[in-house]
Amino acid sequence: MANIVWEGRALPCAPGETVLDCLLRAGVPVASACRTGACQTCMLRAVRGRPPAAAQQGLRDTWIARGLFLACQCVPEEELEVARGDALAWVRAVVRRIERPAPGIARLFLECETPLGHRAGQFIHLVREDGLLRPYSLASVPEDPLLELHVKRLPGGAMSGFLHDALRPGDALTVRGPMGNCFYVKGRPDQALVLGGTGTGLAPLLGIARDALARGHRGPIVLHHGASRRERLYADAALRALAAEHPTLSYVPCVPVDDAPGPPVVTGSFDDILLEAVRARRGCRVFLCGASERVLRLRKAVFLAGVSMRDIHADAFFTAPPPASARGGG
């Protein structure tokens, strides 16, 4: 059994227990969200001792060199002295505009006091005044004057409920970031890009598509947005207009069944529609965003369809697990 040393206190870590659970059990307030290592909320720094490699998977080399690790993924193999550690910017941001394009969806536009230095497709943490923190993907490109976020209301969601019900233009939040490796890199400008996301998984894909176009990508860009109903294709008009402006961009709106009159949509299984597009474009690069179960399932299916892992970029949305004392999240 390894000890976790926090501010001079030796805290016994039970066999198989993570550093995060050990600290929380001891009453140490450590921010966390997804508990899968995806959101990077619970990042800490090893002052003494070496975290296992699994706790640093996906982190930048410069962060690893500083001893940063993900507490939720760290089952210590030796005594670790740990401290708070953050390689990310904390920036004050003011809400400038809120739009509600569909039931349960809010588009937030934030102005940061200092530039965030993000890449299109990355994600940030929104931090409420009381310290509540949640990850959200960016729909904006770095050249935009405002950060754009798409927020889905989650049942019982502490943060999403606040953002939908209480937040007003002029209110201030803290932005922490940027994070994530799901973004466009200009290396093969003639390569086909296949982008797929459901619900607010559209947000990072919108930024990635706009960024690729701005950087002069010459290959076809095929953007799939899936929703349960036509009314939930909340950026339909804007995406049709964007595709009309750019001959290399195709927009594919997907619903299980066409349930209302309107412009053409593709009906059927979103997974099948996306995989058909992947198989039709040998050597393509694929971007997947949205709910974790679908993204992880599609990533495997895309790989089995013949796409190299280096050409598969994924941003899986994980819902924060409810605390033990009060079952609620988001």
Overview of the molecule:
There is one protein chain. The chain is an alpha/beta fold and 330 residues long. The protein folds into three domains: 82 residues, Ubiquitin-like (UB roll) (Roll); 91 residues, Elongation Factor Tu (Ef-tu), domain 3; 125 residues, Rossmann fold, CATH 3.40.50. It has seven helices and 17 strands. A six-stranded antiparallel beta sheet has the order 9-8-11-6-7-10. Strands 15-14-13-12-16-17 form a six-stranded parallel beta sheet, sandwiched between helices. A hairpin with a 2-residue loop joins β6 and β7. It is globular. It starts with a strand and ends in a 13-residue tail after the last strand.
Keywords, separated by commas or semicolons:
single chain; alpha/beta; 7 helices; 330 residues; 3 domains; Elongation Factor Tu (Ef-tu), domain 3; 6-stranded parallel beta sheet; Ubiquitin-like (UB roll); Rossmann fold; 31% strand; disordered C terminus
Instruction: Count structural domains.
Output: 3
Can you tell me the residue ranges where pLDDT is under 50 for at least 5 consecutive residues? Answer: 323-330
Amino- and carboxy-terminal Cα gap: 34 Å
Write the CATH architecture name of the largest domain: 3-Layer(aba) Sandwich
Mean pLDDT: 92
CATH class of the largest domain: Alpha Beta
N-to-C series of helices and strands:
EEHEHEEEEEEEHEEHEHEEHEHE
What strand line-up does the widest sheet have?
Answer: 9-8-11-6-7-10
Short summary of the structure?
With 330 residues, this protein is of the alpha/beta class. The chain contains seven helices and 17 strands. The chain folds into three domains: 3-84, Ubiquitin-like (UB roll); 89-179, Translation factors (Elongation Factor Tu (Ef-tu), domain 3, Beta Barrel), CATH 2.40.30.10; 193-317, Rossmann fold (3-Layer(aba) Sandwich), CATH 3.40.50.80.
